[in-house]
Fold this sequence. Notes:
Two copies of one chain form a homodimer. Chain A contains 21 helices and three strands. Mean pLDDT of chain A is 94; it is low at 1-8. By secondary structure, chain A is mainly α. Chain A has a three-stranded mixed β-sheet with strand order 1-3-2, with helices on both faces. The interface between A and B is large, with 42 and 42 residues.
Amino acid sequence: MNLLKNGGLCQMELAQAITKLDALQRKMFAYNHAMGVLYYDGATAAPAGSAANRGETMAVLSEAEYLMATGPEMIDLLDFLYAHNDELTQKQRRIVEMLRKDLAELRCIPQEEYAAASKLMAESTAAWHEAKPRSDFSIFAPYLEKVIETKKRFAHYVKPDIDPYEYYLDTYEPGLTRRKCDEFFAALRARVVPLLKRVQAARQVDASFLTGDFPLEAQRKLSDELMEIMRIDRSFCSIGETEHPFTTNFTKRDVRITTHYYPDNAVSSMYSVIHEGGHALYELHTADEDMYNGLGSGVSMGLHESQSRFYENLVGRSRGFVTFLAPRLRALFLQQLGGVSDDALYRAVNRCEASLVRTEADELTYSLHIMVRYEIEKKLFADEISVAEIPQEWNRLYQEYLGVTPSCDRDGCLQDSHWSDGSFGYFPSYALGSAYGAQMLARMRETVDVDACEKNGDLAPINAWLCEHIWQYGCLYKPAELLERVFETPFDPKYYLDYLETKFTEIYGL
Amino acid sequence: MNLLKNGGLCQMELAQAITKLDALQRKMFAYNHAMGVLYYDGATAAPAGSAANRGETMAVLSEAEYLMATGPEMIDLLDFLYAHNDELTQKQRRIVEMLRKDLAELRCIPQEEYAAASKLMAESTAAWHEAKPRSDFSIFAPYLEKVIETKKRFAHYVKPDIDPYEYYLDTYEPGLTRRKCDEFFAALRARVVPLLKRVQAARQVDASFLTGDFPLEAQRKLSDELMEIMRIDRSFCSIGETEHPFTTNFTKRDVRITTHYYPDNAVSSMYSVIHEGGHALYELHTADEDMYNGLGSGVSMGLHESQSRFYENLVGRSRGFVTFLAPRLRALFLQQLGGVSDDALYRAVNRCEASLVRTEADELTYSLHIMVRYEIEKKLFADEISVAEIPQEWNRLYQEYLGVTPSCDRDGCLQDSHWSDGSFGYFPSYALGSAYGAQMLARMRETVDVDACEKNGDLAPINAWLCEHIWQYGCLYKPAELLERVFETPFDPKYYLDYLETKFTEIYGL
């Protein structure tokens, strides 16, 4: 009887603790939401001179959130709940595990440094926004130096014994190490480089009709059509326009994708919408009940990129889907594409070319662009090069891997936004994501007639498969765990490399 | 010696208290900034389904700000500083006075009700955004009922002895009462109504060429030109597009104006940009040192409208300025306006017509639109009509004052956003502002050749005069005090009425 009573009391305390943790997470969610909107507004609508004020506001909110994430209430709740780990549901256990990991890391970083870093990232991003159109690296360099110095210091606070760059690799793709990353890129290099050589020696594909006069209004209409084809609910997902396309999500009820319309090129925006749309679909389909807790979001950057690049390339650049889109494109851009056949269009959007800009890169050379960034990040964190040497090193690596050299930093080391807010270690996840996606496609084909879906523009079965196997879980499983459940065999880049070889052998008649 | 020492100590304590208050205000500023950006984003970029989440986030931030504004630190600081009132600078005294007033009011409102109200206003605004394009008042009505109920309850908490509506009149225009407002509108009615009758009996002005095909791209270009002519620094002020134009400011370094482009009407957006530009100029020119304290913003809605309507009407619809703009308008809209003379354009943009939409109203009938809203607000707060009766009462009053009846609520009681976020008592400030502006113009003419400025499109001397007499002070002086300094005689609506009579007598050849 006494035992029962104690058991009952404990149950009640446990329920109360869960409720309190929910409330605390909701509050932290609000701060993240506000900071997210400030960031989005800064990249879209805000006047250029507003960055300093925004940085100060970010610092205040970030400090308040830090205090919640590391405060005595959070510590007590997590200690209590961890002590009752066996009595928690699977979801609750994972939430506690993730929060404890965050807490352990945050507690290593002094509060005032954390707030200052938040302000610095906002200012640095603004500096990048100013530097890129002017192609002036010197505007951005002093901020980037501070960003790298801060990131190194933070990594050292948290994990003083491991390589700071490896710490960030693991942040974006839990479990990823420099060794694994090196091996992965070596495997890619071994097959992609010779394949590219054969492609370059073959008869080239004509894509000249993809450059010309593509009215912005028609491009915006195309974005609307793509969102509908991808079955993205516009009530919960908007499209904005920014220098560099991105996706951000505040909740599964408020996801934003952005694109950049170029008046002389419709394909760039088209594939950025499909890419960001893949990110959006993932975020829009996490579980309703996880809206305000740490599970309600994509689990890692690699998994996220696997989804965006799945739609962009495996679906968006497939023969079936391009054939489905072709009549729509001819109607929207009659003057440019009216006389272009389905086959010519398919080959054109898959044209391989060693080029300068990652986001415009074809499917085959893409991983080489990533390798440039990976090499530079490793060297920056190992103090093998300085920030001032980035442009030179960038140009050297582009020449080495791709055989091309940027004529200005706008098309070189200033092209991506990632470094401006300290997202070092993120880039490898693009290449990993592509490889994950190819292995998912192989699994999907066992039960879904993917070719028919693409040809008919009916993406519902593809969405349903991804939702069933990936999206609905949010962060419930760790990336490696989730992939194991999906693949039922270990991750292997050979699916990706086989896919590339088959596809480009056919297109280039190798 | 002892005295000196105490004095020194007290000085140090005082300096510390000032520093602490500054820091607290900066923190509160950050929360207001975040909430402002969330609001702006909600009105511009956010997907429609995101309102509920945004409301919850607003409630969390609003609660945190409430705790800062009413917490023990604020109370202690204000008590201490008020006790040393004589030792404070003029600015410090005014800051303390304003914060004490806010504190006294906020302490009357229970914290949880304050947070709930913030959430309600966000949801209500979203409902209005949904209701207006559908012209469906029933979508908005249940929210509006809750908004009014909340506003009444809050007024009662703060000032249980006075009429709730009068409380809000005083909020937007400190010192304004129902009696003063009734008298002001009576004075207007006595001269505007007979003047309008004479205008309506006269030969009508042709404005048919202002309706037609006005490409949006050219309209956007016109906005850019107007911003430049008004000398608005775009680094600190952006233009967005919303259903209903508005201005919002986070600091003097981040001001946003919005407009609505109608493809068949260029004048609507043109004058909304000039109007909102007037608000923006005021906010952009408060003192640098007041960026993060309560002084760094326009002092009242009446003063604010005096600036926006000064630019819109006294400058923007003057013969000189229209003549200056005419060649630009003819160049931008060659097909529509290529053959229109300066005089015809001047008369057309000043055409009087009893119409349905306030923001499209001419200068003469404008105050009648305001009177409709004033009457309804008074009746709602006196429980003389219910929310459900608004459409009917709206249409009745439009018929009575203007002789026209809306065919749908979109052009009727759903046209304005003000009620959706509880801005009751705001409307009278538009009419008051117009009258303030006319009296300012009379003063300005004593030292500035206003006609020459308008004719040459050189607004610098006008901006300089307004900056010197009004903008730079922010909230340092109370509205009545500021006006007294500017006018050196009491405020008198006769300047406004004389101005209207002279202008429209000339245009209509009365």
